[in-house]
Amino acid sequence: MTARLIGMGKIKTYRNQKIRDSARGKECLMKLPGCCGGTESTIWSHYRGEAGGKGMSLKADDLCGAYACTHCDAIYDGQKMIPNGIERVDVWLAWHNAHIQSIVILHADGVLK
Ligand SMILES: [Zn+2]
């Protein structure tokens, strides 16, 4: 499988089951209004832009993800309406902050070395 990165041609998409599995038991880090809270529905939310290697029917690299509950991920993905009082840019900022926190946690937990 290949990923299309802007200006970088085709490169191999990075997949790591341990990263995806690490979402089990983690708290959502996006915390948008209406967030599920807790750890029950937390998933590894993949980046939705092309810079993360996302293609027509291809998810972004597993490195390009964040711990998010299904509610927050659905808002980020556009499947759910953006809650009143915030805008699309707030959703993207929340995802990017969650991504940075998630990468730090992955390293601290020894998933990324
Ligand atoms: Zn959430």
- Backbone structural class: alpha+beta
Query: Which overall shape is indicated by the principal axes computed on the Cα atoms?
Result: globular
- The radius of gyration computed from the alpha-carbon positions, rounded to a whole number of angstroms, is 14 Å
**How many β-strand stretches?**
4
Question: In sequence order, what are the helices and strands, one letter per element?
Answer: EEHEEHH
The number of helical segments is 3
Question: How do the strands line up in the largest sheet?
Answer: 1-2
Domains, number: 1
Low-confidence stretches: none
Q: Distance N terminus to C terminus?
A: 24 Å
In round numbers, the mean pLDDT is 89
- Fraction of residues in helices? 25-40%
| Percent of residues in beta strands | 15-25%
The largest sheet is: 2 strands, antiparallel
